[in-house]
Amino acid sequence: MRIISSFVVFSIVLLSSGWLPKSLPVHIKGQLKSNPKYEWNNVDNLQVLVKGDGNLLAKAITKKGCNFEITFTSNKEKYFEFYCTGLGIDTLLLECVTSFESDSPEMIFYLPANYRKNVLGQVICIKCNKADKVYKIVYNNSPIVTRIVNSKGDTSYSPLN
After folding, report:
1. Helix (H, G, I), strand (E, B) or coil at 134
2. What domains does the chain contain, in order, with CATH numbers?
3. CA 41, 37, 63, 93 torsion: positive or negative?
4. Running DSSP on this structure, what letter comes out for residue 42?
5. What gap in Å lies between CA 161 and CA 146, rounded to an integer?
6. Do the Cβ atoms of 88 and 47 come closer than 8 Å?
7. Source organism's superkingdom (predicted)?
8. What's the rounded Cα separation, in Å, for the pair 95 and 65?
9. Left, alpha or beta for 15 (phi > 0: left; psi -120 to 50: alpha)?
10. For the chain, how many helices (H) and strands (E)?
């Protein structure tokens, strides 16, 4: 009898301490598309990141046709942020999602992301729904520079005037 009660207590402690998976994994088939409102033509070989409550959950690289597949396990996060980064591209917020309709959704993200404006014409943040800390990004060509390598192998860059 003592062994059975010890086993029951041990089982309850084991189950309540988090040894079971928190939830099923989410498998997303996604695609990055160039936003037709802007001139953005390079969406190949970009890295897509998923963060949940500020923690990195998964990352994937876009393949041919700008498609990607990404899998992660949710631990009861309040929201999921999808970011994009790549060569010459800063980390850009694509979308903020609070829940998924299924555990294998198909999603399309636009680069740059679609945005909404408030009554005053200010852009509203995708994540926090506020407009006071949103700044316009100017898409521009990088400056033309010359690369100088000295005899020691050190490299420096200087702008062309």
Report:
1. coil
2. 21-127 (2.60.40.10)
3. positive
4. -
5. 10
6. no
7. Bacteria
8. 20
9. alpha
10. 1, 11
